[in-house]
Amino acid sequence: MKTPIAPLHLAHLCLLAFLPGLLPITPLPAAPDDALYTALLAEHVSDGLVDYPALRDDPRLNAYLRQIAATDPETLPDDPARIAFWINTYNAATLQLVTENLPLRSIRDLGRGGVVLSFLLKTTPWDRRFVRVAGRVYTLNEIEHDILRKRYREPRIHFALVCAARSCPPLRREAYRGDRLEAQFRDQARRFLLDPAKNRYDPATHTLHLSMIFKWFADDFGATETERLAFIFQFVDLHEMAPEANPPPGPPAIRYLEYDWSLNSQGH
Fold this sequence. Notes:
The protein is mainly alpha-helical. It folds into two domains: 34-193, no CATH class; 200-256, no CATH class. 43% of the residues lie in helices and 8% in strands. The protein is built from twelve helices and seven strands. The longest helix is centred in the N-terminal third of the chain and has 21 residues, at 79-99.
């Protein structure tokens, strides 16, 4: 014979069955903790270069990426906050990709089939689907081209996105923030344009040697060469790029520097 369940015990069982629904649910973060990411960058980045072995052993990077995965960027207050979010996401995910594949000479070595074939077959590291945000999984290319370039049409993102190559703009030692984005963009533009390894002016030939970024994404900076030069001269002038120069009248000739794809690592 089965022992009957006392009414009180039955009530307890019912309460236990519904208890998970009564427990407080930890809310998703409204936004990732930028202070956490800034502390991480400040410790492992110097002069735009990264100490990847030390970063690999730091649990804060994965903690920050988990916060990114749990954030819905559409709930952020405005476009500057969303742009900052996606830049931080791109850069942090790139750091993760590199640290998970050390030792590494170039991020392009992670493409399946070799450098040329991986671009043709879309098997480059930028085509990998691994960046988690709000229940979706993105590629780095989707973040850069489909979201940041297409949706926001903000050319200054090219001074902020860092693809782990030496010729990329420098990685900042702080997170991008919506409330500081204008100042951060301007500072990044000047740092990038005034780095002679990435952009330089030759007064002897009146030639501006620019990063390949200005060729690859030319239309983002202006429809004509005149417009693109005007965009650049918002941030620097030829005297700043070559203080001893006395540039002649008229626009400089434009040439493009070879892109250095070696890893942006310290002591490389």
